[in-house]
Amino acid sequence: MRAYSLSHLSDPELLKGLTSLVAQDRATTATLLAHIAEFDARRLYLPAAHPSTYSYCVHELHLSEDAAYKRIRAARAARQFPVIFEALADGRLHLSAVSLLASYLTSENAEGLLAEAAHRSKSEVEELLARRFPRSETMGLVEALPASPFRADDQLAPGPVNPETPQLAPAQVGPRSTLAPVAAERFRLDVTLGRCSREKLRYIQDLLGHELPSGDLAQVVDQAFDALIEKLEKRKFAATRRPRPGQRPSANPRHVPAQVKRAVWERDGGQCTFVSEAGRRCPARKLLEFDHVEEVARGGRASVAGIRLRCRAHNQYGAECTFGAGFMREKREAAQRAAEARRRETEARARARAAAEEVIAPLRVLGFRAEEARHAAALCETIPEASLEQRVRRALSYFHPPGQVSTPAPQGTF
Question: Strand pairing partners for 187?
Fold first, then answer.
């Protein structure tokens, strides 16, 4: 305790020591963020049985939720824009400023925005962002308020800060807790509802009129939770009070039968089963997946003994340990390319159908029956970019035998 008693220092010595310690603290903060950024990039939390860097910082480094959130957010931003490390070390920026700026930094504006934010207080940075990235004053009244990111590990799951994602200006809506303890075994829930949700709530109260005449919201919410849990458990792991005696086997080797899901979920307690070398089990209870103990590619079977629960991060980590990070990265990229190709194909089909449907009305005006118009319009799905007149001409060819010349429609008719 005597080391922290400074009453013996003179005023000049105290001021000099304070200034020196602040400078050291800034340099240490920058170095700490560099370590967090590299730790995050290497995903070293995975072998330590944590689903995210956030979880590791809170449960292993014992940082507060707020401190972990700010430092990881700032570390990812600084890894993307390394000048932030130097700005933190020399005191041009503080941690709160970097955390606020992270969502708005892009390769085009980073230099100017960081320079403009230098040596500003937190409130001044908030005003700067509100001025540079204005939002409607009524937006906060019509948009859903975000839940506190400090309560959700997946808010800081693997991945860099996405500066292109628009967010509410910090001065308007800041991160906050929506569920807080108020007494032993008692918690306060604050939530903002839209009109539709309010009407649903009132309807539920009406339906519970005989069972719950008071319409007490706490009891209504509790019963709603029970109903939702039952529905989600049924969807997630086929929970049911009356399991079917047997199910037809699937030809898909990756298919996990419902009875296996139920048994595995109960056995593993709805928690990721990854265990670190130190014997620590991953605490994740969300983003859980049914993972084959032995990979399907190596003959793994979907039996109770052959399936386990893994969070998404440790499921991918296990695959990378088996097949290599490069191989799995290529597989994910190939899957993304395939998904993008399917999306483009779906959009192309939608455009083709819209182009064909647009022709039906003109054909009906010309006196064709609805069924005839639909069959004729289908010819236009191959030319969705053509003008309406060209598509109508193509549709009219449906009504003329091969080799018969149709009378062209007058220019400008359609």
Answer: 181
Q: What pLDDT is attached to residue 248?
A: 66
Token reading at 144: 């859903």
Percent of the chain with pLDDT over 90: 59
The span from the CA of 85 to the CA of 386, in Å, is 55
Residue 193 amino acid letter: L
Q: Are 388 and 358 in contact (CB under 8 A)?
A: yes
Q: How far is CA 11 from CA 17, 20, 23, 101, in A?
A: 10, 14, 19, 37
Name the pLDDT band for 136 (thresholds 50, 70, 90): low
- Res 163 pLDDT > 60: no
Q: Where are the alpha helices (DSSP H) in 90-176?
A: 95-101, 110-117, 122-132, 139-142
Q: Which residue's structure tokens are 């967010």?
A: 167
pLDDT score of 42 more than 80: yes
Mean pLDDT for 305-329 is 91
One-letter amino acid identity for 36? I
Query: How buried is 263 (Cβ within 10 angstroms: 0-12 exposed, 13-18 middle, 19+ buried)?
Result: middle
Contact call for residues 215 and 221 (beta carbons, < 8 A): no
Nearest CA to 306 out of 318, 320, 290 is that of 290
Asked if the model's pLDDT at residue 274 lies above 90, the reply is yes
Taking CB atoms within 8 Å and a gap of at least 24, the contacts of 191-197 are 192/144, 192/145, 194/144
* Rounded-to-integer distance, Cα 265 and Cα 232, Å: 13
At 246, is the pLDDT very low, low, confident or very high (cuts 50, 70, 90)?
A: low
Instruction: Determine the Cα–Cα distance for residues 402 and 324; give it in Å rounded to an integer.
Output: 60
**pLDDT for residue 349:** 92
What was the pLDDT predicted at 158?
A: 46
Give residue for tokens 């962002």.
Answer: 129
How far is the C-alpha of 278 from the C-alpha of 255, rounded, in Å? Answer: 33
Please write the tens of the pLDDT for every residue from 170-217.
Answer: 333 344 457 888 888 888 888 888 889 989 999 999 998 888 888 899
Give me the helix-helix angle, 312-323 and 325-365, nearest 10°: 120
Residues 356-389: b if buried by 16+ CB within 10 A, e if exposed = bebbbebbeeeebeeebbbebbbbbbeebeeeeb
The full 3-state SS of 284-353, as one line of letters, equals CCCCEEEEECCCHHHCCCCCCCCEEEEEHHHHHHHHHHHHCHHHHHHHHHHHHHHHHHHHHHHHHHHHHH
Give the whole-angstrom CA distance, residue 406 versus residue 3: 102
